[in-house]
Design goal:
Elements lengths: L17 E2 L5 E4 L9 E4 L2 H13 L19 H11 L7 H13 L4 H8 L4 H7 L4 H27 L5 H7 L5
Antiparallel strand pairs: 1-2, 2-3
Helix pairs in contact: 4-5
Length: 177
């Protein structure tokens, strides 16, 4: 979930809906909206997590413990138990999705693409997931300032620097006899 931004829908991933070779992805054929039914691209970390599951899976990558032919129903209890046993501070599973969205936005993924990856049909939903940090906002303002300065310099040079015409260039070159 942290590497893909997927919902707990990961529990229902079937082997037939996963492509790990060139352009790896997971296809999600279910969901309330057309946007929720989507292809989720996989990064290298997600591929490494899914490889052993693909090799051992009969159908579902995350099968039910008692019946391998069914998907894991929910992971809330397992999540809570794992946190308790590991002494990791409590976090909700959906926090993985929020973290993914924040990291994606901070690293330049445009909001329309992020909405598509997350399975949102409306851009305003993405804003609920991506939480830019103060430093990220400050860095973005510095990039904008540099871009504006570069544009002003380019405009000044365009206006104040005369580019010679082809005729002027040819006339200034020495002739060869």
């Amino acid at each position: 979930m942290l590497e893909t931004g997927m919902r707990p829908e990961v529990c229902r991933i079937r082997k037939v809906n996963v492509q790990l070779e060139s352009s790896p992805y997971v296809y999600i054929p279910f969901g309330k909206t057309k946007a929720a039914r989507r292809r989720v691209p996989l990064n290298a970390a997600a591929v490494e997590i899914l490889k052993p599951r693909m090799e051992s899976a009969e159908d579902y990558l995350f099968p039910h413990r008692k019946d391998k032919k069914k998907p894991m129903l929910k992971v809330n209890n397992a999540h809570t138990t794992a946190l308790k046993n590991s002494k990791v501070l409590y976090f909700r599973l959906y926090d993985c999705r929020h973290t993914f969205a924040t990291r994606a936005a901070q690293n330049g993924m445009d909001l329309a693409t992020l909405a598509a990856v997350l399975g949102h049909s409306k851009l305003n939903m993405v804003i609920r997931y991506a939480h830019p940090r103060e430093q990220h906002k400050a860095d973005a303002m510095q990039r904008l300032e540099k871009a504006n300065a570069a544009a002003e310099i380019a405009e000044y040079e365009r206006v104040h620097t005369k580019t010679p015409t082809l005729e002027e260039t040819l006339a200034s070159e020495p002739t060869v006899n």
